[in-house]
Amino acid sequence: QVQLVESGGGLVQAGGSLRLSCAASGNIFSINGMGWYRQAPGKQRELVAVIPSAGRTNYGDSVKGRFTISRDNAKNTVYLQMNTLKPEDTALYYCNANYGPGYNIWGQGTQVTVSS
Questions:
Q1: What per-residue confidence (pLDDT) applies to 73?
Q2: Which positions ≥6 away from 83 have C-beta within 8 Å?
Q3: How many H-runs (helices) and E-runs (strands) does the chain carry?
Q4: In the chain, pLDDT over 90 holds for what percent of residues?
Q5: pLDDT of residue 23
C-alpha cells in the first residue's frame, strides 16, 4: 500500500499562488493515477485535478485554466500549481492515489486558505 504525504498549503491573498506537493512511498507501481481533491466546510469532497498513469489530465470546472497538475516520476511526487487563487478555493486539499474502481488511498490533507 502507498503512503501519501502532502505539503505546501497555507494562507494566501486572493490572486496569489501556491504549489502543493504529494510525495508517495510504498507500493507505487500499481497506481492507476494520482490526483487532488478538496473539501470545504459543509460541502462534499470534489475533484480538483487528476493525472493518470496513461492518458490525459482532467480538471474540475472551477479550476480549469488556473491550476496545473504535474508529476515527477523520479521523485514519486505529484504537484498542484494553483494560480489566481480565489476565496472560494479555500478548502482542505487531499492527495489521492487510485488503484482501480473504488480502491483509493488518501493523504491526511493540507489546508489552503485564500483571503479576500
A1: 85
A2: 17, 66, 67, 68
A3: 0, 11
A4: 78
A5: 95
